[in-house]
């Protein structure tokens, strides 16, 4: 007799869908490990809707259910079907990538450096100048803009910096050494393909100079391992480390500092879209990591360094050999940066 579907199964499906909507796809086989810590922290009242779903499903299945299920109530046939679909999707994506068909156009770029000890350091931000959109993508781009950053579409973009110039400045920013190996860049998982694609496109167009090794890694994985390391050094009972990379990513995606004063650029402040500003995001991620890991090491959080205070000044920087302007920020601070 097949196993009865458990409330936890329906909770897993909901968590899986929410993450898929954010561009983060997890298989059913991965979901138990991801959803278990969240489920354990829920109250009886919060679990009640899922218990009702399980009860209704059990009544419906009594007369015809014959599938073999895992201990979490996941049908093995569903796992197999999902694995085949995922394998096919990955195959098609690799073929598209190999054929040069995967391409992203960035509208905004923000990057900064920070440390647990000194807080936020240098930063840079710019809005891109896009000459045109790929054929057939106007409606999708218009909808995305309306729902998020509200940046005008080509040919009416407000940015003055080309993607090429922005990436070149970003490469300079991350301090490439004499061997042309740059400090790694970290971003949220669903942004990694975009960042890698844009960088790859710019670097592939270079005709002079040695190849540049610019690595892009998961910010969630960085936080997961960093929190484990700092918690081992904690001298008092501080918040425990994350049980999984998924939970570290969930923590970063909370948007704790999305509406903090002074994080967004002038354009998004004026448009009242501060939570969708790239500058807000990178500063918010840095502050979130410091807030999670800093206390483990006994670091005193100082406003303006380790947590938001107020708007900080920007200066416009002319990019060599081009007529465009690149907005860069050396965040004002009394600290001495350590690289």
TrEMBL record:
Basic and acidic residues composition-biased segments: 42-60
Location of this chain's protein in the cell: Cytoplasm; Nucleus
Organism: Phlebotomus papatasi
Gene Ontology CC annotations of this record: nucleus; P granule
Principal location: cytoplasm
InterPro entries in UniProt: HMG_box_dom_sf, Maelstrom, Protein_maelstrom
Annotated family: Belongs to the maelstrom family.
Any one GO molecular function term: sequence-specific DNA binding
Taxonomic lineage: Eukaryota, Metazoa, Ecdysozoa, Arthropoda, Hexapoda
GO BP term (any one): cell differentiation
Superkingdom: Eukaryota
Disordered, as annotated region: 39-67
Alphabetical list of Gene3D superfamilies matching this protein: High mobility group box domain
Name of this protein: Maelstrom domain-containing protein
Keywords per UniProt: Cytoplasm, Developmental protein, Differentiation, DNA-binding, Meiosis, Nucleus, RNA-mediated gene silencing
Residue ranges of every copy of the Maelstrom domain listed in the record: 104-309
